[in-house]
Amino acid sequence: MSTTAVAPLTIEDAELLVATARRAAEDAGVTVSVTVLDAGGHLLAFRRDDRAVLISGETSTRKAYTALQLNAPTADLVDAVQPGGLFHTLPTALDRPLLFIAGGLPVHRDGRLIGAIGVGGGAPEQDHGFATAAVQALA
């Protein structure tokens, strides 16, 4: 059996993700915080603008962590954590709180999960758009 190595998410990739999300937010007149994690959940890049709401940094980090742990966009998980949803009890089952608000996206390369980005500070739909623009720039 042979294994094909997949290039990991690099610092340069992380910086591109942050810069693209920030630029998209600035173009929309929004101030955001951006967090990028590698596949192991380690912080690769973080940016919090002093004009952003203070909690936006924690929000972006939790969105990235959620997208990484569940390998899914956080926007797609909102219904799953509602009473009766598939993940209703999941947030209390993990050692780090998850955040089910749009703005967190997993990052893939060659079909494999290599990290995640979280954007916080705008409306959830805006944050999702900023994160999406960043991931598309990396492709």
Automatic annotation (TrEMBL):
Protein name: Heme-binding protein
Classification via InterPro entries: GlcG_carb_metab_protein, PduO/GlcC-like, PduO/GlcC-like_sf
PANTHER family, per the entry: PROTEIN GLCG, SLR1406 PROTEIN
Annotated organism of origin: Streptomyces tricolor
A Pfam match: HbpS-like
